[in-house]
Amino acid sequence: MDPAQARAWLATALAEARTGLAEGGIPIGAALYAADGTLLGRGRNRRVQDGDPSLHAETAAFRAAGRQRSYRGTTMVTTLSPCWYCSGLVRQFGISRVVVGEASTFHGGHDWLAEHGVEIVLLEDPECVRLMSGFVRDRPRLWREDIGE
Fold first, then answer.
1. Residue in 16, 23, 58, 124 annotated catalytic
2. Of 7, 106, 112, 138, which has the fewest CB atoms closer than 10 Å, so is most exposed?
3. How many angstroms separate the CA atoms of 107 and 91, rounded?
4. Regions of the chain with pLDDT less than 70
5. Catalytic annotation present for 58
């Protein structure tokens, strides 16, 4: 994948993450793009805002995309390495690629996805790292709740 395109798509997910943080939530954002580059859906982690533990950023973007005949060829862009729950969603529906903003704050299931044929583009974007590391530092109890600890 073209690195400039990956970073442009990451900007959509980052905007969602910032919105989530401003709403008092967990700053993780995601977007789902079609093979032709069309934005299908975008979303943010809304566990806090909606009181719904299943509403992670990737699931919100997936839901916003609506029903698709197939998800093959699509790209999920996320500001943070996807947890096992969201990694399962990618695998279940055959999403072909995941662009990960960063995996230093949280190393989720992206290695497992790669082992099962999903293309992984790991950017280690400084803004994604800054956003999440600040959140983990400032709200450690909420962060541990989000990752199931």
1. 58
2. 138
3. 17
4. none
5. yes
